[in-house]
Amino acid sequence: MTNEKTRACYRPEPRSRTYHKQVIAILALLVWLSASSFAQEAFTISNSYQNLLSNAEGTGTLDRIFTEVFRRNGMEVLIVYSPTERSLPDVNAGVFDAEANRISGMEEQYPNLRRVPEPNMVMEFVAFSKRPIEINGWESLRNLDIGVVRGWKILEDNISGFPNVARVPTEKELFNMLRLDRIDVALYSKLTGYALLQEMEIEGITHLTPPLATREMYLYVHAKHDGLRESLASALREIKADGTYAAIISDVLAQHNIILE
Questions:
Q1: What CATH topology corresponds to 40-121+217-255?
Q2: Where are the domains of the chain?
Q3: Which helix (H) or strand (E) holds 166?
Q4: Where are the beta strands (DSSP E) in 106-242?
Q5: Tens-digit pLDDT profile for residues 4-50
Q6: Is the pTM of this model over 0.85?
């Protein structure tokens, strides 16, 4: 009797409903496999910028340059944000395939890095301040209260041993310290510094002259990708020669209402 009642209460699920569930499950699996495949196949570049050079939307200067360079090599690229102080060690350890934008010589400290022999761009490193201060090279900063983003090697190395240096994790914290008069100067790159000041709606801060340094910036790949260096360098030269590079730069600057002096 119990079995009969049980059978009487059971209603098999309609065939169409079961079919639809199976289709949804298969589609979900395909989406997951596709995403996993892309994550595995895409060339990952570690980047510590969150501004007009690179951003989550992928519309920054470096985002667009690298996307085009790798496209010309038949490759997909995935640019991943990583804090400045972690980025180089992670690439050196093989966590990511490449490091976005560093000065020459990084391979001396990180032996698994290989520099692509064509610069991504040229950057000016300057001191930003709320007041006019006469400077002439790194040594002229020694007795000032200095702020710097932790992990920016070109800046940290040149002020090593200076008595009053505040190291912060992000550029926004750096410029907030300057705005609040907690430091005399904030050391940063000129272009991205002005973009950040605009984004943060900070007025009354300008860069001091002359620049502390002007450096070519390079893409570094992990040693396992050493064979890609020349083809990536060639593609970089191509986009500079055919006008693609200049068009990207102009478009990004226009979007941010920045006019280079």
A1: D-Maltodextrin-Binding Protein; domain 2 (3.40.190)
A2: 12-39, 40-121+217-255, 122-214
A3: strand 165-168
A4: 113-115, 121-129, 146-149, 165-168, 185-189, 206-207, 213-222
A5: 443 444 445 555 555 554 545 555 444 444 434 444 579 999 998 88
A6: no
